[in-house]
Amino acid sequence: MFTETSIKFRLMLVMSILSVLMVSIGAYGLYGFNQSNHTVQSVYEDRMMPA
């Protein structure tokens, strides 16, 4: 499949795939932090505010 391609093309392809993967994992991590923060906030409001 990639026998006729240059080394530059192969490296750029791998780097672009890794960059997209890194950005998507980072976005998923930020989403997880946001969900965790929202959950802790609701627990705080439910448990600590009445006290």
Give the tags.
single chain, 51 residues, mainly alpha, 1 helix
How would you describe the overall organization of this protein?
The chain is mainly alpha-helical. It is 80% helix and 0% strand. The longest helix is centred in the middle third of the chain and has 41 residues, at 7-47. The chain is rod-shaped, with a radius of gyration of 22 Å.
Give a short synopsis of this structure:
The chain has 51 residues and is mainly α. The protein has 1 helix and no strands. The model has no long low-confidence stretch (mean pLDDT 91).
Instruction: List the total number of helices.
Output: 1
Helix and strand composition category: mainly alpha
Query: How far apart are the termini?
Result: 66 Å
- Tell me, what's the shape? rod-shaped
What is the strand tally? Answer: 0
Radius of gyration: 22 Å
Q: How helix-rich are the residues, as a percent range?
A: over 70%
Proportion of residues in extended strands: under 5%
SSE order: H
Mean pLDDT: 91
Topology:
Elements: H1 7-47
